[in-house]
Amino acid sequence: MPATETDVTTQTSTVALSPSSSSPTGRLAVMTAYAVAATTIPIPFVPGRVLVRIRGAVVHDVVSRHGLSLTTDARTALAEPDSESRTRLVRAAEGIARQLLRRIRPVGVISGASRGVEIYALGLLLDRYVRRVRATSALRMHLEEARLVRDAIDRAVVRAHSPSLRPAPTTMNEGVEDLRDEFTRWIDAVLLTSAALPSYLERRLESAFDEVVAEIPGLKDV
User: Fold this and answer.
1) pLDDT tens for residues 196-215?
2) Residue-number span of the structural domain to which 191 is assigned
3) 211 belongs to a structural domain
């Protein structure tokens, strides 16, 4: 029996609402690197405008993979690099850096790194919101919802730096018999630990975001 126009519309909506089964961590990592590189541009106002474009591309990529769309003002709310929470985070990080490394004063390095973390958190946590928190079946995200999500993501980035946060632990599987010598075990430990840092950051961001979501009234009902 041939499909009617109503059937086609229903099928299209169902496909649009189906969540993406994979997260493009490779693209997100590249966009994070772009954000860090943008902070090194020695021309006034240019780094900020580049960051807006990068953040806008990230949010578009996330929502489009889930069959959603953003209004122009919703995209602007999510793409704007600066926010009150972000300012508090940078000031706190710079204060710690000055205390620990007074002679070096790596303020520029910290700013670039913080921008990279923010881009990564934006893509990671917006995807988590759409997959696990968003209750509405609307295919379009409007300004009000975008502001709530932006606030939750910014607060999660700040909370992820809290020593009191306890992310979900992970374990590394060990072989039945370890035939490595002491030096090889030490080198392997250093390499594997450093390689696990992105995963550790991801788990802290996700744990912080889950806590923040539980504290924001109405976010799950948007």
Assistant:
1) 888 888 999 999 999 999 99
2) 7-221
3) yes
